[in-house]
Design goal:
lipid biosynthesis; EC 1.3.1.9; alpha/beta; Enoyl-[acyl-carrier-protein] reductase [NADH]; fatty acid biosynthesis; Rossmann fold
Length: 260
């Protein structure tokens, strides 16, 4: 059976520009035939909307909606419109993460209470209300895919509070998988991607050194691309992965098996 997502409806969060991992995922979902919905983080001047709308035009999204996960009313509006227009949901992609630059440098013990809450709310907790709102809309066999990183289980320099947030995200994936699988066999998994130069990763001090380290030590002798992560997301969203849930899948050229 070939990977075929025709007739499936997929909501993708977290596209910021053409380097976003979310963009790579959206492209591969669309290439497999899925109908795409896109959310963007709104700003006062509408710059994000313009940029993401222009970029995602090639995907021909049938839904294009603002969503700030710190705004519960806005999240509710997204799923209300999704339910009205689509009637159901097959794929939910969670590519949302944020931590203040000051929280990603220096000593972890210097993390501020506010910085900790913000990082955990956006990067980890947000998948929970998204799944709660999507729950009545999920079609049988639907798939949720979140994006994580090796810093969830190892102390990565300059990753700090984001590592804690990603650890919480991975735990959330397991609990959501246990909950959502019972009724309609909804699957929830995470992809742990190798370091890639993105807008989000640019806030991490030494990101280029991290990439070079992976290139030097990973079994494949390189890091990965957005499209490779997208291929794995498309697989997890498809019936080919019908027996996989609650897992963290590593797409990092094998770096995670090395001794760093």
């Amino acid at each position: 059976m070939l990977l075929d997502l025709r007739g499936k409806k997929a909501l993708v969060t977290g596209i910021a520009n053409n380097r976003s991992i979310a963009w790579g995922i959206a492209r591969q979902l669309r290439a497999a035939g899925a109908e795409i919905g896109v959310t963007y983080l709104p700003d006062d001047r509408g710059r994000a909307e313009h940029k993401v709308r222009e970029l995602s035009a090639a995907l021909e999204p049938s839904l294009f909606l603002p969503m700030n996960v710190m705004d519960s009313e806005q999240m509710e509006q997204v799923f209300a419109q999704l339910g009205e227009q689509w009637g159901g949901l097959d794929v939910l992609i969670h590519c949302l993460a944020f931590a203040g630059r000051d929280e990603l440098i220096g000593d972890f013990s210097d993390t501020s209470p506010g910085g900790f809450r913000t990082a955990l709310d956006i990067s980890a907790y947000s998948i929970t209300p998204l799944c709660r709102l999507a729950k009545p809309l999920f079609n049988t066999g639907a798939s949720v895919v979140a994006l994580t990183y090796l810093g969830a289980e190892r102390a990565i320099p300059n990753y700090n509070v984001m590592g804690v947030a990603k650890a919480a995200l991975e735990a959330s994936v397991r609990y959501l998988a246990a909950e959502l699988g019972r009724d309609k066999e909804v699957r929830v998994n995470a992809i742990s991607a190798g370091p890639i130069r993105t807008l989000a990763s640019s806030a991490i001090g030494g990101i280029l050194e991290m990439i070079h380290n992976v290139e030097a030590k990973a079994p494949l002798g390189r890091t990965v691309t957005q499209l490779e992560v997208g291929n794995t997301a498309a697989f997890l969203a498809s019936p080919l992965a019908s027996g996989i849930t609650g897992q963290t899948i590593y797409v990092d050229a094998g770096y995670c098996i090395t001794g760093m």
